[in-house]
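Table S2 (continued). Query chain:
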Amino acid sequence: MGATNVTFATGATSGEGLVTRVERTPTGAIVVVDTTPFHPVDHTWPDQPGDAGVLSSNGQQVAVTEAVMAAVSDTGDFAVGIDIPVKRGAEGWTWLVGHRLDGEAPSWLVEGAAVRLEVDAVRRSGLSRGHTACHLASLALDLAVADLWRKDPGADALGNPDFESRANQTSCIQEDGSVDQYRLGKSLRKAGFDTEGFAASLADRESQINAQLATWVASGADSRIEVDGPTIVDRRRWHCDLPEREAVILCGGTHVSSLAEFAQISVALDLSDPQLLVMTTTVDRVAV
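Corresponding output:
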């Protein structure tokens, strides 16, 4: 059994595959299929939730509550999510996408069975919009605070000082939005960021971000995922042809195919805790 092949990077939400493994766990059966359109939650950086949907065969079907990362060792040890004891790509382990069920697997869902896989496409679309908007908001945030650095923190995908990678501690992708938290503590100040100047100009920075996002949305730029290979462990990169230059970010999630899918992307900045910036990004999608 090799690593699971995945098709979600192309935008696929359905496909056919062969069941290669069915495992019982305390939280429901985990079904592994050789090829899947389901995007799994990444256990090391769980920003985008795993896809939900349905597995079916010969008129019978079962709901998938969430797609998850799984791995099996050469000696047969099977692990799911945060219980995986090694880093991705570690020798002696094969990486898989698991489809979590609510309870036991039905009798027809066994190793070797041919199944059809259907992702909840409406939910996937919302998460894809949320993830693309999240990246755009972080790039706009980097640009809006670029003048507050006294030292070089490294460059982001547009060549601006990379506040995102220096300060971001959590990111939560939602349908048509996201919530990101940034730590504004002593280590960031030592790295050369003017946290006091940022706090004093918070409203202006928020306005700058929203103006930049409006410009990018109006461009209707193409957005896509490029992959190094077909499996879940092959690197994937988000590309977006923004007016300034092409932005490229390593990313395992799903994304829209064009910024024309957005009517508006807006952010709200909250600094109620002076040590913690919370950026909430909201999407208004183009009506279909």
